[in-house]
Design goal:
By secondary structure, this protein is of the alpha+beta class. It has 7 helices and 5 strands; from the N terminus they run H-E-E-E-E-E-H-H-H-H-H-H. The protein has helices at 4-11, 57-62, 68-84, 86-99, 107-137, 139-147, 151-172; strands at residues 15-19, 22-26, 32-37, 43-47, 50-54. The structure holds zinc ion. Zinc ion is lined by residues 58, 78, 82, 126, 129.
Length: 173
């Protein structure tokens, strides 16, 4: 497992401090927070003192079969990706709300629409975060996933993309 210093230099984003397993990060739009990849079961992102513990579903699905070092580095990058792409994820969410704001719906339809919106937002944000990982890793990402043929990971990405696009189109209709 690489040292924290090694991880920080490989992540190479605007990190202002690293101590223990906590990586303090600052996004391009000024948001600061902390990232902890605690284990394979839980990741922590802390924004403005608010702890957002979450099961790393995408990281678990996509990192299977990778070395421990690659898994850790890509997991950190993925969480960094959530920080860096937050404005895009919010723009997607708000644009769906804006486009469909005048469509009449019953209370039942509205509830289903809101559940769909929550799912679409999460799926699109996961894809944006993973796109950030792809951009940061470049050809190394392609080598890990395409050339080493990881069908589960590619299937997962394709399914997420299909779900994100399909749900967004349904919500905007
Ligand atoms: Zn994620």
């Amino acid at each position: 497992m690489p040292s924290n210093a090694g991880l920080i230099s490989s992540i190479n984003m605007t990190e202002v401090k690293a101590q223990e397993d906590v990586h303090q990060v600052r996004s391009w739009f000024g948001l600061t927070g902390e990232i902890v990849v605690e284990s394979q079961l839980w990741h922590l992102v802390k924004v403005g003192g608010v702890r957002l513990n979450h099961p790393p579903v995408v990281n678990l699905l996509l990192r299977r079969g990778l070395t421990a070092a690659d898994r850790l580095r890509l997991s950190y990058l993925h969480e960094c990706g959530h920080f860096q792409t937050l404005p895009l994820a919010l723009a997607h969410l708000l644009s769906l709300v804006w486009i469909s704001r005048r469509r009449p719906r019953s209370a039942h339809e509205r509830l289903i629409w809101l559940v769909g919106l929550a799912v679409a937002h999460q799926v699109v944000w996961e894809l944006l975060a993973e796109t950030y990982v792809m951009i940061r890793e470049g050809s190394r990402y392609k080598q890990m996933y395409v050339q080493n043929a990881r069908p589960l990971a590619l299937l997962c990405l394709t399914a997420l993309a299909g779900l994100g696009v399909g749900l967004s189109r349904w919500l905007a209709r």
